[in-house]
């Protein structure tokens, strides 16, 4: 049996596997980048550290502060943009306001995954294949507060998990998230209600919000193992 817990803002609580959700937009952008052929992704919270690591590793430097890329970055935090950047075979460093901090908080997990609505089924299959004892679904939130968009992403993964495996244990927090999406085949309307979705639309990224709402658009799982160097690679789940 796998035990699933969900946190609405990041913590450093231990878990064998942690899935970080920053649906608008970091984890969705990571999925798009890997789907377009990205080889490795390093996620860094500090802007200056990200600049240094990108220079040292000959990597594309992507990310945002207040929704837009800082000066000198090669690109922003847009999944639509990531698909068009020509990242095949490349390395990238991604630095964002909230998602990168959630990744750093989960650094001690044996398995660290990036989840979103767009890869929910792939994440579910990958977790069930890994069969860890416990999984923490970590919502990045926005400036330390819970974000509806991240909870929807975590709930969509839980929905895919329970559809495939009956022998799982859900915490009350995980169960509350799952109930949020019951009876929904399309999360777009619910996701659009999120405060961060409305902010992104106000600065010209409404298309990114719509893009992030597409269930199972990608069959990729950005994955990092604790025994490996600190970079995500793609793990492709197999099976139904």
Q: How does this structure look, described?
A:
It is built from 10 helices and 10 strands. The chain has 240 residues and is of the alpha/beta class. It has a 7-stranded mixed sheet, sandwiched between helices. A 3-stranded parallel sheet has the order 3-5-4, with helices on both faces. 51% of the residues are buried. The mean pLDDT is 94.
Tag the structure with descriptive keywords.
240 residues; alpha/beta; 7-stranded mixed sheet; 3-stranded parallel sheet; 10 helices; globular
The description of the largest β-sheet is: 7 strands, mixed
Q: Specify Rg, calculated over alpha carbons.
A: 16 Å
Instruction: Decide which structural class fits the backbone.
Output: alpha/beta
The amount of beta strand, in percent, is 15-25%
Integer average pLDDT: 94
How many helical stretches? 10
What is the distance, rounded to the nearest whole angstrom, between the alpha carbons of the first and last residues?
A: 19 Å
Sheet with most strands: strand arrangement: 8-1-7-2-6-9-10
Number of strands: 10
Q: Percentage of helical residues?
A: 25-40%
Low-confidence stretches: none
Bulk shape: globular
Helix and strand sequence: EEHEHEHEHEHEHEHHHHEE
């Amino acid at each position: 049996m796998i035990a699933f817990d969900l946190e609405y803002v990041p913590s450093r609580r231990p878990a064998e596997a942690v899935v970080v959700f920053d649906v608008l937009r970091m984890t969705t952008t990571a999925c798009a980048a890997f789907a377009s052929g990205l080889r490795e992704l390093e996620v860094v919270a500090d802007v200056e550290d990200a600049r240094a690591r990108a220079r040292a590793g000959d990597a594309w430097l992507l990310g945002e502060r207040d929704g837009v890329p800082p000066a000198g970055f090669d690109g922003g935090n847009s999944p639509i943009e990531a698909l068009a950047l020509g990242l095949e075979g490349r390395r990238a460093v991604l630095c964002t306001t909230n998602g990168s901090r959630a990744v750093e908080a989960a650094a001690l997990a044996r398995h660290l995954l990036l989840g979103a609505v767009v890869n929910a089924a792939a994440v579910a299959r990958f977790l069930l294949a890994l069969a860890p004892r416990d999984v923490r679904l970590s919502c990045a939130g926005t400036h330390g507060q819970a974000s509806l968009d991240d909870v929807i992403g975590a709930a969509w993964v839980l929905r895919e998990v329970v559809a495939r495996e009956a022998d799982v244990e859900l915490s009350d927090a995980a169960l509350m998230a799952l109930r949020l999406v019951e009876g929904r085949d399309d999360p777009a309307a619910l996701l659009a209600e999120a405060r961060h979705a409305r902010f992104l639309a106000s600065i010209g990224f409404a298309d990114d919000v719509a893009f992030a709402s597409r269930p199972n658009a990608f069959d990729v799982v950005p994955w990092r193992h604790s025994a490996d160097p600190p970079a995500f690679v793609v793990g492709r789940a197999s099976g139904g």
